[in-house]
Design brief:
With 276 residues, this protein is an alpha+beta fold. The chain has two domains: 116 residues, RNA polymerase, RBP11-like subunit (Gyrase A, domain 2); 111 residues, RNA Polymerase Alpha Subunit, Chain A, domain 2 (Beta Complex). Helices cover 22% and strands 34% of the residues. The protein is built from five helices and twelve strands. It has a four-stranded antiparallel β-sheet with strand order 1-2-12-9. Strand 10 and strand 11 form a beta hairpin. The protein is flat. 26% of the residues are buried. The structure holds iron/sulfur cluster (2 copies) and zinc ion (ZN). The site of one iron/sulfur cluster has 14 residues, from helix 4.
Protein backbone atom coordinates (compact mmCIF):
# COMPACT_ATOMS: atom_id res chain seq x y z
CA UNK A 1 0.00 0.00 0.00
CA UNK A 2 1.25 3.48 -0.88
CA UNK A 3 -0.05 6.93 -0.09
CA UNK A 4 1.10 10.06 -1.95
CA UNK A 5 -0.18 13.51 -1.02
CA UNK A 6 -0.55 16.18 -3.69
CA UNK A 7 -2.06 18.60 -1.17
CA UNK A 8 -2.08 18.65 2.61
CA UNK A 9 -2.91 21.80 4.52
CA UNK A 10 -4.98 22.56 7.62
CA UNK A 11 -8.36 22.06 5.93
CA UNK A 12 -7.87 20.09 2.70
CA UNK A 13 -6.02 16.89 1.77
CA UNK A 14 -5.72 15.37 -1.68
CA UNK A 15 -3.90 12.07 -1.93
CA UNK A 16 -3.54 8.96 -4.07
CA UNK A 17 -3.90 5.62 -2.33
CA UNK A 18 -2.40 2.70 -4.28
CA UNK A 19 -2.35 -1.06 -3.81
CA UNK A 20 -5.71 -1.35 -2.06
CA UNK A 21 -9.11 -2.78 -2.99
CA UNK A 22 -12.26 -0.76 -3.58
CA UNK A 23 -13.60 -2.17 -0.29
CA UNK A 24 -10.62 -0.78 1.62
CA UNK A 25 -10.88 2.62 -0.08
CA UNK A 26 -14.55 2.76 0.82
CA UNK A 27 -13.85 1.65 4.40
CA UNK A 28 -11.38 4.54 4.77
CA UNK A 29 -13.89 7.00 3.31
CA UNK A 30 -16.61 5.84 5.67
CA UNK A 31 -14.28 5.87 8.67
CA UNK A 32 -13.25 9.49 7.96
CA UNK A 33 -16.85 10.61 7.53
CA UNK A 34 -18.55 8.59 10.28
CA UNK A 35 -16.09 7.35 12.89
CA UNK A 36 -13.91 10.35 13.78
CA UNK A 37 -15.38 11.96 16.92
CA UNK A 38 -15.97 15.71 17.21
CA UNK A 39 -17.76 18.08 19.56
CA UNK A 40 -21.25 19.31 18.63
CA UNK A 41 -23.95 21.04 20.63
CA UNK A 42 -26.37 18.45 21.97
CA UNK A 43 -28.31 20.22 24.75
CA UNK A 44 -29.60 23.80 24.76
CA UNK A 45 -31.21 25.57 27.70
CA UNK A 46 -33.24 28.49 26.36
CA UNK A 47 -33.99 31.28 28.85
CA UNK A 48 -35.43 33.75 26.37
CA UNK A 49 -36.25 33.49 22.67
CA UNK A 50 -38.40 36.16 21.05
CA UNK A 51 -36.89 35.58 17.58
CA UNK A 52 -38.85 34.26 14.60
CA UNK A 53 -37.32 30.79 15.03
CA UNK A 54 -38.88 28.11 17.20
CA UNK A 55 -36.67 26.93 20.08
CA UNK A 56 -36.19 23.57 18.30
CA UNK A 57 -35.06 25.22 15.05
CA UNK A 58 -32.64 27.43 16.93
CA UNK A 59 -31.19 24.42 18.78
CA UNK A 60 -30.89 22.53 15.48
CA UNK A 61 -28.92 25.38 13.90
CA UNK A 62 -26.61 25.61 16.89
CA UNK A 63 -25.99 21.86 16.68
CA UNK A 64 -24.69 22.17 13.12
CA UNK A 65 -21.98 24.74 13.94
CA UNK A 66 -18.54 23.05 13.71
CA UNK A 67 -16.63 23.37 16.99
CA UNK A 68 -12.88 23.12 17.49
CA UNK A 69 -12.26 19.74 19.07
CA UNK A 70 -9.27 18.53 21.05
CA UNK A 71 -9.84 14.84 21.66
CA UNK A 72 -6.99 14.78 24.19
CA UNK A 73 -9.15 17.03 26.40
CA UNK A 74 -12.70 15.84 25.65
CA UNK A 75 -13.96 12.27 25.63
CA UNK A 76 -17.40 10.77 24.85
CA UNK A 77 -19.80 10.83 27.80
CA UNK A 78 -20.08 7.05 27.62
CA UNK A 79 -16.34 6.80 28.45
CA UNK A 80 -16.29 9.55 31.08
CA UNK A 81 -15.96 8.97 34.82
CA UNK A 82 -19.06 11.17 35.37
CA UNK A 83 -21.07 8.27 33.85
CA UNK A 84 -23.03 10.49 31.49
CA UNK A 85 -23.98 13.21 33.98
CA UNK A 86 -21.81 15.79 32.17
CA UNK A 87 -18.54 17.29 33.43
CA UNK A 88 -15.60 19.35 32.14
CA UNK A 89 -13.98 16.25 30.65
CA UNK A 90 -16.92 15.41 28.38
CA UNK A 91 -18.97 18.60 28.00
CA UNK A 92 -18.10 22.01 26.53
CA UNK A 93 -20.31 24.89 27.68
CA UNK A 94 -21.37 28.00 25.75
CA UNK A 95 -23.55 31.04 26.29
CA UNK A 96 -25.41 33.17 23.76
CA UNK A 97 -26.94 36.45 24.82
CA UNK A 98 -27.97 38.78 21.99
CA UNK A 99 -30.53 41.48 21.31
CA UNK A 100 -31.71 42.94 17.99
CA UNK A 101 -31.49 44.59 15.65
CA UNK A 102 -28.58 42.32 14.84
CA UNK A 103 -27.37 39.49 12.65
CA UNK A 104 -26.32 36.74 15.05
CA UNK A 105 -23.18 34.86 14.01
CA UNK A 106 -21.35 31.84 15.39
CA UNK A 107 -18.85 34.27 16.95
CA UNK A 108 -21.65 35.36 19.32
CA UNK A 109 -21.57 31.89 20.84
CA UNK A 110 -19.16 32.37 23.75
CA UNK A 111 -17.31 29.20 24.88
CA UNK A 112 -16.26 28.68 28.47
CA UNK A 113 -13.14 26.93 27.11
CA UNK A 114 -11.63 29.04 24.26
CA UNK A 115 -10.20 25.85 22.69
CA UNK A 116 -13.75 24.76 21.84
CA UNK A 117 -14.75 27.95 19.98
CA UNK A 118 -16.73 27.65 16.72
CA UNK A 119 -14.41 26.69 13.85
CA UNK A 120 -15.73 29.65 11.81
CA UNK A 121 -16.70 33.02 13.22
CA UNK A 122 -19.09 34.14 10.51
CA UNK A 123 -21.70 31.37 10.29
CA UNK A 124 -25.07 33.14 10.35
CA UNK A 125 -27.51 31.79 12.95
CA UNK A 126 -30.44 34.21 12.78
CA UNK A 127 -31.28 37.85 12.09
CA UNK A 128 -32.93 39.58 15.02
CA UNK A 129 -35.28 42.56 14.52
CA UNK A 130 -35.49 45.42 17.01
CA UNK A 131 -36.32 44.26 20.56
CA UNK A 132 -36.02 40.56 19.64
CA UNK A 133 -33.81 38.68 22.04
CA UNK A 134 -32.11 35.32 22.58
CA UNK A 135 -30.53 34.18 25.84
CA UNK A 136 -29.41 30.59 26.15
CA UNK A 137 -26.82 28.14 27.41
CA UNK A 138 -25.54 25.36 25.14
CA UNK A 139 -23.69 22.13 25.92
CA UNK A 140 -21.55 20.27 23.39
CA UNK A 141 -20.58 16.61 23.69
CA UNK A 142 -18.34 14.27 21.70
CA UNK A 143 -20.02 12.04 19.13
CA UNK A 144 -19.50 10.57 15.66
CA UNK A 145 -21.09 11.18 12.27
CA UNK A 146 -22.54 7.66 12.45
CA UNK A 147 -25.02 8.93 15.05
CA UNK A 148 -25.75 12.34 13.48
CA UNK A 149 -24.27 14.47 10.67
CA UNK A 150 -23.59 17.29 13.15
CA UNK A 151 -20.67 15.21 14.50
CA UNK A 152 -19.17 14.67 11.05
CA UNK A 153 -15.63 16.11 10.95
CA UNK A 154 -15.55 16.25 7.14
CA UNK A 155 -17.49 18.54 4.83
CA UNK A 156 -16.31 16.70 1.71
CA UNK A 157 -14.90 13.20 1.77
CA UNK A 158 -14.76 11.07 -1.35
CA UNK A 159 -12.61 9.24 -3.83
CA UNK A 160 -12.57 8.33 -7.49
CA UNK A 161 -10.77 5.57 -9.33
CA UNK A 162 -7.43 6.55 -10.81
CA UNK A 163 -7.91 7.25 -14.54
CA UNK A 164 -6.02 5.22 -17.13
CA UNK A 165 -5.88 6.84 -20.58
CA UNK A 166 -4.66 4.67 -23.46
CA UNK A 167 -4.03 5.98 -26.97
CA UNK A 168 -3.29 3.45 -29.68
CA UNK A 169 -1.31 3.69 -32.93
CA UNK A 170 -4.40 4.49 -35.03
CA UNK A 171 -4.49 8.03 -33.58
CA UNK A 172 -3.75 10.55 -36.35
CA UNK A 173 -3.70 13.60 -34.10
CA UNK A 174 -6.93 15.09 -35.55
CA UNK A 175 -7.55 16.80 -32.21
CA UNK A 176 -11.32 16.17 -32.02
CA UNK A 177 -10.97 14.57 -28.59
CA UNK A 178 -8.95 17.57 -27.37
CA UNK A 179 -11.72 20.00 -28.33
CA UNK A 180 -14.27 17.83 -26.54
CA UNK A 181 -12.36 17.32 -23.26
CA UNK A 182 -13.83 19.67 -20.61
CA UNK A 183 -10.78 19.38 -18.36
CA UNK A 184 -7.98 20.14 -20.85
CA UNK A 185 -6.33 16.78 -20.23
CA UNK A 186 -5.17 16.13 -23.80
CA UNK A 187 -2.75 17.70 -26.30
CA UNK A 188 -1.19 16.82 -29.64
CA UNK A 189 2.52 16.08 -29.87
CA UNK A 190 4.37 14.56 -32.81
CA UNK A 191 1.20 13.81 -34.73
CA UNK A 192 -0.55 11.95 -31.89
CA UNK A 193 -2.60 12.88 -28.90
CA UNK A 194 -1.14 12.51 -25.41
CA UNK A 195 -1.96 13.41 -21.80
CA UNK A 196 -0.80 16.84 -20.65
CA UNK A 197 1.85 16.41 -17.98
CA UNK A 198 0.39 16.64 -14.46
CA UNK A 199 -3.29 16.71 -15.58
CA UNK A 200 -4.16 12.99 -15.67
CA UNK A 201 -5.68 13.02 -12.17
CA UNK A 202 -8.10 15.76 -13.25
CA UNK A 203 -9.80 13.43 -15.74
CA UNK A 204 -13.46 13.03 -14.74
CA UNK A 205 -13.84 9.73 -16.67
CA UNK A 206 -16.63 11.35 -18.71
CA UNK A 207 -15.47 9.55 -21.90
CA UNK A 208 -16.43 12.46 -24.18
CA UNK A 209 -13.03 11.99 -25.83
CA UNK A 210 -13.90 8.43 -26.81
CA UNK A 211 -17.20 9.58 -28.32
CA UNK A 212 -15.48 12.37 -30.24
CA UNK A 213 -12.97 9.92 -31.66
CA UNK A 214 -15.73 7.51 -32.73
CA UNK A 215 -17.71 10.39 -34.28
CA UNK A 216 -14.68 11.12 -36.45
CA UNK A 217 -15.30 7.81 -38.24
CA UNK A 218 -12.30 5.85 -36.95
CA UNK A 219 -14.31 2.62 -36.79
CA UNK A 220 -16.08 0.67 -34.08
CA UNK A 221 -13.39 1.30 -31.46
CA UNK A 222 -11.94 4.67 -30.52
CA UNK A 223 -8.18 5.22 -30.69
CA UNK A 224 -8.38 6.71 -27.19
CA UNK A 225 -9.72 4.57 -24.36
CA UNK A 226 -10.59 5.56 -20.82
CA UNK A 227 -10.51 2.99 -18.04
CA UNK A 228 -9.60 2.90 -14.35
CA UNK A 229 -6.93 1.36 -12.16
CA UNK A 230 -8.87 -0.93 -9.78
CA UNK A 231 -6.23 -0.63 -7.06
CA UNK A 232 -5.56 3.09 -7.13
CA UNK A 233 -7.81 5.86 -5.79
CA UNK A 234 -7.70 9.64 -5.64
CA UNK A 235 -9.10 10.99 -2.36
CA UNK A 236 -10.22 14.50 -1.54
CA UNK A 237 -10.95 15.21 2.14
CA UNK A 238 -12.04 18.52 3.63
CA UNK A 239 -12.23 19.21 7.35
CA UNK A 240 -15.11 21.27 8.75
CA UNK A 241 -12.53 23.03 10.93
CA UNK A 242 -13.12 20.99 14.06
CA UNK A 243 -9.61 19.50 13.69
CA UNK A 244 -6.81 19.45 11.09
CA UNK A 245 -7.55 17.20 8.13
CA UNK A 246 -4.37 15.24 8.88
CA UNK A 247 -5.81 14.28 12.28
CA UNK A 248 -9.04 13.12 10.61
CA UNK A 249 -7.10 10.77 8.31
CA UNK A 250 -4.93 9.47 11.18
CA UNK A 251 -7.90 8.86 13.49
CA UNK A 252 -9.82 7.07 10.72
CA UNK A 253 -6.84 4.76 10.12
CA UNK A 254 -6.52 4.16 13.87
CA UNK A 255 -10.22 3.26 13.97
CA UNK A 256 -9.75 0.72 11.15
CA UNK A 257 -6.71 -0.76 12.90
CA UNK A 258 -8.54 -1.04 16.23
CA UNK A 259 -11.59 -2.63 14.59
CA UNK A 260 -9.32 -5.20 12.91
CA UNK A 261 -7.55 -5.93 16.22
CA UNK A 262 -10.91 -6.35 17.98
CA UNK A 263 -12.04 -8.77 15.29
CA UNK A 264 -8.85 -10.81 15.66
CA UNK A 265 -9.39 -10.93 19.45
CA UNK A 266 -12.94 -12.21 18.95
CA UNK A 267 -11.73 -14.85 16.48
CA UNK A 268 -9.01 -15.94 18.90
CA UNK A 269 -11.60 -16.24 21.66
CA UNK A 270 -13.80 -18.42 19.47
CA UNK A 271 -11.00 -20.66 18.28
CA UNK A 272 -9.23 -20.68 21.65
CA UNK A 273 -5.96 -19.37 20.20
CA UNK A 274 -3.92 -16.92 22.22
CA UNK A 275 -5.31 -18.35 25.48
CA UNK A 276 -3.80 -20.97 27.77
S1 LIG B 1 -12.67 11.11 -20.03
FE1 LIG B 1 -13.43 13.22 -20.13
S2 LIG B 1 -12.06 14.37 -18.78
FE2 LIG B 1 -11.05 12.43 -19.21
S3 LIG B 1 -9.71 12.83 -20.95
FE3 LIG B 1 -11.65 12.07 -21.81
S4 LIG B 1 -12.87 13.91 -22.18
FE4 LIG B 1 -11.19 14.51 -20.87
S1 LIG C 1 -10.04 11.96 -31.83
FE1 LIG C 1 -9.05 9.94 -31.95
S2 LIG C 1 -7.74 10.08 -33.73
FE2 LIG C 1 -8.28 12.18 -33.20
S3 LIG C 1 -6.63 12.89 -31.86
FE3 LIG C 1 -8.21 12.04 -30.55
S4 LIG C 1 -7.61 9.90 -30.22
FE4 LIG C 1 -6.47 10.65 -32.02
ZN1 LIG D 1 -18.03 13.63 32.07
Amino acid sequence: MEIAFSRLDERVAKFTLSGVSTSFANMLRRAMASEVPTLAIEDVRIYDNTSVLFDEMLAHRLGLIPLRTNLETYKPRSECSCEGAGCDACTATYTLSVEGPKMVYSSDLIPQDPDTAPAEEDIPIIELAKDQKIVLGAYAVVGTGKAHAKWQATTACGYKNYPVITIDARCDGCGMCIDECPRDILEVAQGRVRVVEGRRELCSLCRLCERACLAGGIGTEAAIRISTDDERFIFVVESDGSMPVREIIERALQYIQKSSDDLIDVMNEITGEGTE
